[in-house]
Design brief:
Elements: H1 2-25, H2 37-41, E1 44-48, H3 56-59, H4 67-79, E2 83-84, E3 93-101, E4 109-116, E5 123-131, H5 137-157
Parallel strand pairs: 1-2, 1-3
Antiparallel strand pairs: 3-4, 4-5
Amino acid sequence: MQSKINILAALFVMATLAACSLQAQTPAEPPAAPVPSQIVNARRVFVSNPNSEQDPRISKYFGGPDGLYNQFYADVKGSGRFEPVAAPTDADLIFQVTMGLHPFVAGYAALRLSVLDPKTNVLLWTISEPVDPAFLTKNARKNIAVSLERLVDDLKALTPGK
């Protein structure tokens, strides 16, 4: 009887040690990497228009070749977080918004915001937002507008409290 108790006690100790060992091996979430200081401290931005020659099959859904640019510019200006400026030399950041395929959602169109440092032309950050599919032109316009708003919201979320 005593040997059975000793075996059970030994098994219990080994099981407890194994459970502790498994908990210790679970990797912790890495700490959040810092947002580049250029983004955190930015106030003035230049919104570039890389889409002026975009595919006419896309531009027809959103006010012609400059429609995406015009709406994003208005959203940035209306956000109250950033002040658009007329020249990249006057800006703390450069924003470029483009439309293409979403990198993580197969078959979905996406808007991509690239944030660049105007002094070095280094890409500091990118944000992608899917555009929900639509069959009607008015729904396509609405879906693109919603995704543009989400891009601006994502950008503001990088610098809470600013």
